[in-house]
Amino acid sequence: MTSRDAQPPTGRPPLPPPAGLPLLMAFDLDGTLITEQGREADAATASALARLRAAGVKLAIITGRDLAPDAVLDAMQPDAVATNNGGRIVVNGELHTEARFTAADLEAVLAHELDGARVVLFTAQRLFVDLPRGTQPEPWMIARNSGPLSEAPAGDVLKVGFYHPQVAGFAGRLRQSHPHLVLTGAQPPYLSFLTITPQGAHKGAALTLIADALELPHGRAVAFGDSDNDEAMLEVAGYAVQVGTLPLLARHAHTRLERQTDLGAYLNAWADRLGRA
User: Fold this and answer.
1) pLDDT for 205-235, tens place per residue?
2) Cβ-proximal residues to 253 (8 Å cutoff; 6+ apart), any chain
3) Which runs of E-coded beta strand occur in the chain?
């Protein structure tokens, strides 16, 4: 163990990292595998991922984004990718699972009271936006060839995102009326951002489904995450690594990295242990 391994306190009893193979490592993207809104892993992390993959570790991305950056995919060559907070899962290059809103649930989600909110609907192929009057689409929306909300194919929506200072109140109301939906954000560090996905579409379920598809025991799954949408994933992982210091996640973590920039050294140390074994 090195000083760059996790730092206490964490909520779970201390536990040494799992030794040997088989092993599945699943990573959140923003704030975990890469910097917030980043596009690629740093050199130390990319090198460690290559070493882990060569040693036989299965690698997965489980992200709230609807697309993983090409540079990350090239460096990692993951066995599985779950996007939209686990709502769409691809394993070994093939679509495994896709969770879509029912018409009734989508109608309830869009019946919001957030005047002036930015609303984004995500499908597998495209996104559709509703912007406040006078607001221009952001560059990432333009790059994705976004369309108006009115053109969204209602039966294909995988995720809905809201950007508004009062999303917390809306989230509370929706949790009461539609408790089966999955809501993340609307709390630190994403006070003005709310993500909603269909029933069962969360990162914990994604990690379980990926482990099953790769025929690995759930106890051999290691999850890395930094924010509230990673909570379910860390809870079900056989070994949970919190990146950063968000108090919400501490009770789910076996170990913690104080900074995202510590990840590369931590993973390289893990690759060293596998090499010695």
Assistant:
1) 999 999 999 999 999 999 999 999 999 999 9
2) 6, 10, 11, 12, 234, 240, 241, 242
3) 24-27, 58-62, 80-83, 88-91, 94-98, 118-122, 127-130, 147-148, 159-163, 182-187, 190-197, 221-225, 239-243, 255-257
The DSSP code for 110 is H
As beta bridge partners, residue 62 has 82
pLDDT per residue over 81-129, tens digit each? 999 999 999 999 999 999 999 999 999 999 998 999 999 999 998 999 9
- Beta pairing class for 80-83 and 58-62: parallel
Question: Checking phi first, is residue 26 left (phi over 0); if not, alpha (psi -120 to 50) or beta?
Answer: beta
Give the strand order in the sheet containing 80-83. Answer: 94-98, 88-91, 80-83, 58-62, 24-27, 221-225, 239-243, 255-257
Residue 40's φ and ψ, nearest 5 degrees, are -155, 155
* pLDDT-flagged residues of the chain (< 50): 1-9
Which element (helix H / strand E) includes 28?
Answer: none
Tokens linked to 48: 């460690």
Backbone angles phi, psi at 123, to 5 degrees: -110, 180
Query: Sign of dihedral through CA atoms 236, 241, 243, 248?
Result: positive
